[in-house]
């Protein structure tokens, strides 16, 4: 039977909400594969970094629901969009750990290259460098300990040798003064001993061999001591000369040095030293000391300055005559001559005072 109402349509099936996937754009220069989780996490953070907004406007979301879908009513929560697998940002455990310091013995360039390495590689290198430095310090301590032991033994042996060599002269004297063979004083006594008492003659021969052996050792010791003294003196003299040239660098000029040595020799001769005395002084540690050499150099400079002052005062100067004052006569000449003698004989401040008086006397002449 027909009715005025239309048949009810079948309820439409509810279409499920679309799942939105998070798109991740990877840089063009990114590697195709990574070997560690740390590297993958860094690559993911770089890909998910926010990009600068484009000048074009973003598309406006449609306000109307798609056909066949029911829009959420007011008060109902919108369906949650599930996140794509792996979309959650991973936290790199390595970034939470303190940085590994490069080895202290490396250069600045090597330390910069070390910081650019992966943390696992840094850890291995740092561990190996730590082991290497520990082994190096251990070996260094062993060498130092051995050197200390050897040095102690060397000093002990040197002391024992010095004591032995110091006792050689006394031992030789005792062998020469042996009362057992006091009656043998000439070759005739030796011949008689050989003919009459052969056992005693053999004993006397052995005694003579001991004397010869001790004499040889004594000569060798004296020769060695002389050579050591010469070597030590050469080192000492060379070092003192170097220190002298450091304090007086102008003496490095051969010409000036030759003149200074000649002036110093003449100065010492004027003070009563003979050439032999000067040679002995130069070979003595006290006089060769660079500080004593500097004192002699100062004396030469002072003597040279005094001579220049005397030469300057002896130049002919025009007489200065004051009005109404008569020129001095023989008394003034005698005074000048006396002052010249004082300048030549005195030294130090006395010579300078006499020179100043001489200059004033010559100018007032």
The helix content, as a percent range, equals: 55-70%
Number of spatially distinct domains = 4
Number of helices: 12
Unreliable runs, pLDDT <50, ≥5 residues? 1-22, 54-79, 81-88
Mean pLDDT metric: 76
Distance separating the two termini: 172 Å
What series of H and E elements makes up the topology? HHHHHHHHHHHH
Structure overview:
The protein is mainly α and 365 residues long. The protein has 4 domains: 95-177; 178-247, no CATH class; 249-312, no CATH class; 314-320 and 328-365, no CATH class. The chain is built from 12 helices and no strands. It has helices at 37-48, 93-96, 108-115, 119-176, 187-196, 198-247, 254-270, 275-282, 285-288, 290-313, 330-345, 349-363. Helix 4 crosses helix 6 (198-247). The model is unreliable at 1-22, 54-79 and 81-88 (pLDDT under 50).
